[in-house]
Amino acid sequence: xxxxxxxxxxxxxxxxxxxxxxxxxxxxxxxxxxxxxxxxxxxxxxxxxxxxxxxxxxxxxxxxxxxxxxxxxxxxxxxxxxxxxxxxxxxxxxxxxxxxxxxxxxxxxxxxxxxxxxxxxxxxxxxxxxxxxxxxxxxxxxxxxxxxxxxxxxxxxxxxxxxxxxxxxxxxxxxxxxxxxxxxxxxxxxxxxxxxxxxxxxxxxxxxxxxxxxxxxxxxxxxxxxxxxxxxxxxxxxxxxxxxxxxxxxxxxxxxxxxxxxxxxxxxxxxxxxxxxxxxxxxxxxxxxxxxxxxxxxxxxxxxxxxxxxxxxxxxxxxxxxxxxxxxxxxxxxxxxxxxxxxxxxxxxxxxxxxxxxxxxxxxxxxxxxxxxxxxxxxxxxxxxxxxxxxxxxxxxxxxxxxxxxxxxxxxxxxxxxxxxxxxxxx
Length: 427
What we know:
By secondary structure, this protein is an all-alpha fold. The protein has helices at residues 2-17, 19-36, 40-51, 60-73, 92-95, 98-106, 124-135, 137-148, 153-174, 177-194, 198-211, 219-223, 228-252, 254-263, 291-313, 323-343, 353-363, 367-383, 393-409, 422-425; strands at residues 265-266, 272-273, 282-283, 287-289, 346-347.
């Protein structure tokens, strides 16, 4: 009885401590499930008016990833990167969906994609809440960082609310909970580094990359605060999860795995082409290879991280990071994640979310910046659902919106005092 009572007490304390992301996640699930089930007709006219699209549809991409998860459940690694999975992320994206897919399979609900003949698949009643709850992990990561930064409860409440609205693009419209999980794991890794736990930070970062490699764009910023003698060990741990998962998939089907992971195909006919669409290789089926643009973005971020490292090393080390420096580091993480959107040949609305999520955390240090950033993030989330198809109009508006969000969330410099910790440069 005593251990059980202790566990219940600990859970109660944790729920009170994380009440804002808990409530925001519950709200996200409630709104998401109501708007996609019996309440769908209530939002049909509103969505069509706002975005120019038909009624709110279930996220088809989620079904493709669940097909990949189903193959993991049945130990079919050879089919992980073959149709109908459409998987281009690392295997961790499918791995995180294995529990719900196993349950759907056990109940015999099936994984038939939503369509005209299957408008309301029963599997959504399990998959929907599960993937939205998974996405909500990002809200907990943001709240944990805000708490460590000394943000007041009232501002943390607004942070959770604005974060949940922005998260709808990822979990509900996009059906890509792996993006939210990867960013959450990466942010928890930054928090571990702040607590002088470099080994744990490396494993969390590695898990994030294994789920969705988009966080590789932010990795150079974090590496910029590590002492050179720590880099090899950190990178080895961070690479291990992806190496194991990709190695297993490649051993089962080398050609399919390499083709999906290297070319990163995307579809300008279905999403938003950008000016880069004309400069990247085109693949069969009307798609384009997004991989080259992402490599260019990563190269630019690496160059910027080297400049940041020189700047930060000029600061005299202290016993640990200051909250001011943690916030500054997070802002640069947000900026690095935004670089992806600048060089994507084809854009999707949920690509904007990682930058918005991290920028909201840095903005939470003051009411004016948090309110301005929240308004910008929420507005951008809704406007990004517009159906503009020109290579300049939608993309240019989104890049401007990201720039404005980062401007609102910027960290004011308070002198060149010694704010870099030994946790980064000397441990």
